[in-house]
Amino acid sequence: MKNPTLVKNMKHVKWKAIPPLRGPDPRGLIKEPKEDKQDKLEKNNGRRR
């Protein structure tokens, strides 16, 4: 890191554990989508049908 203030304030951060945003294996901070929620309710009664 080039920014000395950032490094001074973030000594506890494990820089090697953060995945890269660019490069040959870019994962970034991609999270897996939750599968427990349904996209649409089965019964759609009421105003909007």
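the 2nd protein, sequnce then structure:
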Amino acid sequence: MSHAPVHVTYETDLRARAYPLVPGAVEGGQELRQRPEIAALLGALGHSDWDCAEGWTLVALPDTARQPVALGAFGPSNRPGWVNVNMLGVHPGSRGQGYGTRLHAHLLARAAERFVMHGGATEAENQPMRRIFEKHGSRHDATQLSFRSSPLDRFHQSVHAARAVRKARKQRGSGCLQTDDMPG
């Protein structure tokens, strides 16, 4: 079996505290996403194909030179009263300067205007994001393992299945395996 990614999930009660808005944050929808500097940042963050879904708000935080360095978005969840937040990221050259913490707080502040709960997740090894969740009063909810088989794993499974079928045919001596003889 290939490497099983581990994710941690968090819940945040948006009524439990106030979150600060970031002065100078730029908000919008698809029109903001289309700006060349935003498209370039999305590309640098590995999200060049990201689109702003209906009902979602894109938020960009600028640096001191007024260039966008951090992007996130928020919008309705499938659960009533809950918000989804997408931390698209902080430009690699601007990491470690608090942009992620300020962006997350801004997203929660804006989300709290319309929603009461936030559910979030990150990779277990993403310690900076986990610290951000904890700073903002998020409660660790669950740890999830995602098992996915690799193409090599699937190949080995199909080889073993083919061997089992050949063995069953040989044992029956008919060269043909009836469907009611198949396991499962």
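The radius of gyration is 24 Å. Residues 151-172 form the longest helix (22 residues).
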